[in-house]
Structures
1.
Amino acid sequence: TLWKWVAENIDHYRTFPRLVGECGGKNFHLIHPSADITTIVNGTIRSAFEYSGQKCSACSRVYLPRSLSNEFYSQMKTIMEKQLRIDTPLKFDTFTSAVIDRNSFNRIRMYIDYARKSSSTKIIFGGECNDSVGFYIQPTLIET
């Protein structure tokens, strides 16, 4: 419906409108089988994990065709494991830092623990939590 409304009014726009799906304060990525996987992975990482995922437009869901899942998970895991520095924001090469406070830390850890125990979810990567100095949560990818 949204795309139809855009198409019906396309001549009123100066540029092609970009639609963002939002799920209760978070966004999602709906992936088509013809999509470029590297673009998807890079966009998902930035959307999901910048600002420790604490922005209203953070990607919290990716609807992914099975045909792309192995490559998506592989590329996500490689980047999350080897390229995303999680540390103090005072270091130039830090990608993201701690979550804002103990309440956020506890809530996120609770969801990760739930995913770890659930028979309908699988942690693909991440899930480590450390509150010894700050409230650090490793970027986490969960298959549901």
2.
Amino acid sequence: VFPSLAQAQASVANEVYKELGQPPVFLFCPTEYCSSLCSPSPSQSCYLQTIGQELLPGIGVIWTGPKVVSQELSGVLLEEVEAVLRRRPVIWDNLYANDYDCRRVFLGPYMGRAPGLMSRLHGLLLNPNCELQANFIPIHTLGTWFQSELGSCALPEHAGTWPLSPGSSDSQGAQDGSYSPQEALELALRDWVAEINQQALEPGR
């Protein structure tokens, strides 16, 4: 029925999206969801070109970056992806993921993401460590990064893309629009120690 896999996927996704009443959040994960899976590159991929052309504009497209687990995300790469998909991507960030290697637990701060990256994104999802307690620092420092990105967004249309969360960080970096992984880590560690001490005082602990 369809001349290509991409056209088949786009057609099915469009029909489901319309059947559900075109919800405000509807995500599509393409077969080529990172640069290393694209042939020969994201901008020259016939598959991604078709997805960008055929997929309805209200559907978000998931992207993990240069690789499935990307150590860095750059604005240049996201510009290329945005151009071929005809929309800003939703980053599915596997920086902390360890479901593929249970011996690996990442407790470091959120890092390797270029400043001003948020203006290139439609959203960001964090894939955490499988161990619940190990995600305090990853999620805490992601929040600090997010606050710094909100502070650095110069264009009003970018600010409206992301929901503002209640509360604010006392980190100077978040206030002045810069992000320091080391400062974010120290802030997270301070709050984590306080959380651990509070749990230790609870009955039955």
3.
Amino acid sequence: HQETLTLLWSFIVSMYCVGGMLGCLCSGYLTAKYGKKKCLLFNDVVLIVAVLHTGFSKRAKSFEMILIGRFLEGIGAGRIPHYSIAHIQYAGEISPKKLRGFVNVTSSVFLALGKAVARILGLRELLGGQSLWPMLMASCGLPALVQLVTLPFFPESPPYLLIRKGDLEGYRKAIRQLWGEGRHQAEIDDIMKEKATMKNTKILSVLELLKDPAFRWQLYMIVILTATVQLCGINAV
């Protein structure tokens, strides 16, 4: 029945957001405990499992597989705050100081490029037709697979190794692997300053943050901007 189809389609569309909300609940804890590199690798596995469900759903004649795939994709996107944020942080932390700003900007460029490519591939003349849509839904697994294969050859973020783990030897090894054997005292000084700052900084709970008058106007600004983005019509488009 048409009403049943509409309900199922609404569930499929909404399941991504449900998974995203659940993923966000554990994103901060997992990133702090296991580091950005391990979390990105785990996210790649989740996304590959998700696209296997969506990609083979038509062959299996199972809309439940689309629901599961969309839910897992949402968890993957939400666990590392919208996924791209961890990439930006990791890329910035492993970059030399003189290239850090450039690397952070390129992340936004590739994010916009990815959205544009996805829109183009979604045209009915390409992968958005009746026969090829499973390939379109599974296409996001390709970048995840490439990252899953290549990222293990990169070290963990030096700030994470030194600040969170206190692993001085691992920190030095990562520095040498990333930046060579030269002098990198400026980058090292920045990380040491960050470590000293974190020691003297109290981690606030959500309730304490809401009650602290020093952050009130910043919170107002963030809430207004976030709500405006959600209400501007981009999700409808």
4.
Amino acid sequence: EDFLNLIFKAMMKDSLNSSHPVSSAVQSSEQIQEMFDAVSYIKGASLLLMLKHYLSKEVFQAGIEIYLHNHKYGSARSDDLWDSMNEITNGTLDVKKLMKTWILHKGFPLVTVVRKGKIISLQQEKFLYRVEPENWTSDARLL
């Protein structure tokens, strides 16, 4: 329950225009410090959990083991982790391409499902939290 609360707080922060991607190039030590916040840690953890469930626990763990073995006593980039996952899936899935759509962009997708009889349509768009004008009194603005 506590982790879910953290995820929702991070999602709220990530839905603001002031958010940032989980991974991005930095030019200064100040930019590095700015990157280590709830979006980076909690969204990053959520993305890894999502990937673990998508690949299966066994495949994900094997990919992590390859990654740790290949980069022990050294430094690594996020692409190195995705390459390890690609290695364990034998190239059947482009994990790097999949994960870059999540880590290189701020925010998250909102999927809207509409059902009309037997027809189901889906629409995906970037979710942005919009603060209503100050004179708005309904609690609906908090949803």
